[in-house]
Amino acid sequence: MTLHTSAIDRLCKRNVELSAFSTYGIGGSAHYLAMPETANDLAELLQECNKRGMPWYIFGMGSNILFPDEPKHDLVFISLKNLVDLRVSEGKWHVSSGTPMSLLSLMGLLGGTDLLDFTFLLPGCVGAGIYMNAKYNARQICDILDTVYYIDTTDPSLSVQSIPVSECLFAYKQSIFQQRPWIVVGADLNIPVSSEEQINTTSVLLTDWKTRGSHPSSLPSFFSFFLGEVHALAGKGIQTPQSMLDIIKYRTSKRHFDYPSCGSVFKNNYDYGVAVGSLVDQLNLKGTEYGGAIISPHHGNMILNQKHAKATDILYLMNLISESINNQFGFVPEPEIVLV
Ligand SMILES: Cc1cc2nc3c(=O)[nH]c(=O)nc-3n(C[C@H](O)[C@H](O)[C@H](O)COP(=O)(O)OP(=O)(O)OC[C@H]3O[C@@H](n4cnc5c(N)ncnc54)[C@H](O)[C@@H]3O)c2cc1C
């Protein structure tokens, strides 16, 4: 007789502190947390959750979400951070959703293209980057995609399907994946593959990330891992381009990796035409503290976890910013971070 272990028993850890899975370092104890390594395991897990009527929540590195202080009992948290795979098929790069976006910049560096530089030091995984259409300056994730692979969670077969980038409804911080119950599992990039050496070295970097870098969602270790890798490549004669040096300068000057945070809290309102960070500055709210949280003294659109903040502390400061902007400038800013 064969004993069948359920996917939930096989893949879920029990009673895990979510704070370790969020760059905010915030979140209470999850009763179920899974980190599937293959799309098949993910599909099996979803099937069982659906069968048992258990809700689930998909995430990546947790660099854009605020987990609750007290998660619901039956909610299954699923991080795709370990769904990491990188291969070349039919002359195209295929990356799976757990691949760190920042790794793509090193891949570009090895291949002699600057098209991926903007992903350098951009926290988070490719899957969420596609979901959020992550960007840096004028460059967005959608610029480098060819095809996206996803699981439609309403389709009972939960098989992997594909959609060309032209149909993904990408716009500023928007994509079709925010409108449909689809989970991104990977993508083909429209970036040229230059050499065997580029493929091999990128694979080694990914393996290093898997074994050394990927576990904590800690911003300092994320920063030191990728900074260390560009220094190592420079030691081998692959110079760090000015665009990447500028990113280091910008992100360190804004203290992006000094305190736990989730980056920008609100989306900019392009109709209004002034960045949220500048409006917060004009309102003299930078440096305002509540509980363990503080509005960054260096960047008005960031709220930092300064001293063991709770999710409720962050929410308090978000409401303060939102109401103050509405009173003074006449619009309610749309949150960029996702409240779970
Ligand atoms: C210091 C700092 C600086 C940042 N700077 C920038 C910046 O310059 N530009 C920028 O765009 N962002 C920035 N961010 C935000 C963050 O990097 C991006 O939003 C990134 O895409 C989040 O990736 P993640 O894996 O951490 O996603 P998570 O935070 O884990 O998830 C974010 C959302 O994506 C959904 N999701 C996750 N994976 C999938 C999937 N596979 N399929 C479908 N939905 C999914 C989740 O349900 C959630 O709603 C910054 C964050 C930090 C902490």
TrEMBL record:
Major site of localization recorded for this protein: cytoplasm
Protein's UniProt keywords contain Transport: no
One Gene Ontology CC term in the entry: cytosol
Keyword field: Cell cycle, Cell division, Cell shape, Cell wall biogenesis/degradation, Cytoplasm, FAD, Flavoprotein, NADP, Oxidoreductase, Peptidoglycan synthesis
InterPro entries, alphabetized: FAD-bd_PCMH, FAD-bd_PCMH-like_sf, FAD-bd_PCMH_sub1, FAD-bd_PCMH_sub2, MurB, MurB_C, MurB_C_sf, Oxid_FAD_bind_N
SUPFAM superfamilies xrefs: FAD-binding/transporter-associated domain-like, Uridine diphospho-N-Acetylenolpyruvylglucosamine reductase, MurB, C-terminal domain
Gene3D superfamilies: 3.30.465.10, UDP-N-acetylenolpyruvoylglucosamine reductase, C-terminal domain (3.90.78.10), Uridine Diphospho-n-acetylenolpyruvylglucosamine Reductase, domain 2 (3.30.43.10)
Domain FAD-binding PCMH-type: 25-194
EC number: 1.3.1.98
Pathway participation: Cell wall biogenesis; peptidoglycan biosynthesis
Catalytic activity: UDP-N-acetyl-alpha-D-muramate + NADP(+) = UDP-N-acetyl-3-O-(1-carboxyvinyl)-alpha-D-glucosamine + NADPH + H(+)
Membrane spanning stretches: none
GO BP terms, alphabetized: cell division; cell wall organization; peptidoglycan biosynthetic process; regulation of cell shape
GO molecular function per UniProt: FAD binding; UDP-N-acetylmuramate dehydrogenase activity
Known cofactor(s): FAD
Residues annotated as the enzyme's active site: S264 (proton donor), E336
Task of the protein: Cell wall formation.
Family: Belongs to the MurB family.
Annotated HAMAP family: MurB
Name of the molecule in the record: UDP-N-acetylenolpyruvoylglucosamine reductase
